[in-house]
Design a protein that fits this description.
- Helix 8 links the parallel strand 10 and strand 11.
- This protein has 3 domains: 96 residues, 4-hydroxy-3-methylbut-2-enyl diphosphate reductase, catalytic domain (Cobalt-precorrin-4 Transmethylase, domain 1), CATH 3.40.1010.20; 80 residues, Rossmann fold (3-Layer(aba) Sandwich); 89 residues, 4-hydroxy-3-methylbut-2-enyl diphosphate reductase, catalytic domain (Cobalt-precorrin-4 Transmethylase, domain 1).
- The chain has 285 residues and is α/β, with parallel strands linked by helices.
- The model has no long low-confidence stretch (mean pLDDT 93).
- It has 9 helices and 12 strands.
- It starts with a strand and ends in a 10-residue tail after the last helix.
- The structure holds iron/sulfur cluster.
Amino acid sequence: MEVRMADHMGMCFGVKDAITMALGLTQRGPVTILGDLVHNDDVVAELEDAGATRAHGRADVQTRTVLLTAHGTARRVKLQLQQDGYEVHDAACPLVHRVHQAIDKLLAEGRHPVIIGQAGHVEVRGLVGDLDAYTIVGRVGDLEALEGRARLGVVAQTTQPLEKVLELVAALRQRFPSADVRFIDTVCQPTKDRQESLRRLVAECDLVIVVGGPESNNSRKLTELARRLGRPAYQVANAAELRPEWFQDVQTVGLTAGTSTPDHVISQVKAQLESMRVHECGRVS
Ligand code: SF4
């Protein structure tokens, strides 16, 4: 079986920088990461070994030093932590920061903020955490909540598929033709690069494997995109999750990975795929 790699894949600079910051902080003493710094169990284990514990909420924070994740955090949450006496470090990716700034700009123009993304996702919670009023749109049906709004300002969660975002913006304009709509494209460049690269890859392979943890939104989106483009696609967290039965009659496998997947996990999956043998009858061993 031939394995073809996407030319843009795997860990992005935002996640790498956040991990570097976390490991740097552990050199000075214990640190608590508020939320999942990265959706990858191997990296989480490495951070825990280095002395960084994970907390899901403020009540669980046991150390004076707190690190906020690359997904970004609402200003009021950060401020509250500082007022409570924590030493707060913020690993927010600059490209998530750009989305917060875009929302500020749209608010200053008197627009109702519309976030295209996944309600409840940590990045989206950070984006709306300082807002009194907003609408999260994940599908066309959600647009109905915008009835009666005259001025709208639209941004997107950084890891949303650009195509889906543009479709929703077009649907919004069509549904409310008299509304004054301003859209700022905030899908991040690494996400765009990975999605474009996957489109090229799909044309060259029979099946796609996406390496990414089950919590990784952008890995899930890559898997969905590959399927939408007409290829069977499976998301695996590591090499152990590959199933031989997926590869019956497959000659060429396309390999890509989400932005929180470390290189060594991708290499292990690649090696495992290359070691699989496709027999003449189509059986894989
Ligand atoms: Fe930054 Fe994009 Fe990576 Fe998120 S996916 S950390 S926004 S580069």
